[in-house]
Write a structure and sequence with these properties.
The protein is an all-alpha fold and about 90 residues long. It contains four helices and no strands. It has one domain.
Length: about 90
């Protein structure tokens, strides 16, 4: 069955998982390498940060799909990922 609301809901669920991946990137990569597993994300943290940022923007006609703040202090998704977008 076609469920048009499902895709944005799945994307919203990924936002918080992506937040954890970005926050713990180095540690998770080490653990993955140590386990001999294949890294499931892009090689570049900056590339993944850009993808994550797109997820937070949601769909223009569905405000409920948009993440505007990710911390109670008023941190926007753009502010939060800036450190990884500026690094090599």
């Amino acid at each position: 069955a076609d469920q048009p609301e499902l895709k944005p809901r799945v994307r919203l669920g990924r936002v918080w998982l992506g937040y954890v991946w970005l926050s713990l990137w180095d540690r998770l990569r080490r653990e993955c390498q140590k386990a001999g597993a294949e890294w499931p994300l892009p090689e570049s943290r900056a590339d993944f940060a850009r993808e994550w940022l797109d997820w937070t923007r949601g769909e223009p006609d569905k405000p409920w799909t948009q993440i505007r703040l990710i911390r109670e202090r008023g941190t926007t998704p753009e502010q939060w990922v800036q450190r990884w977008l500026e690094s090599p």
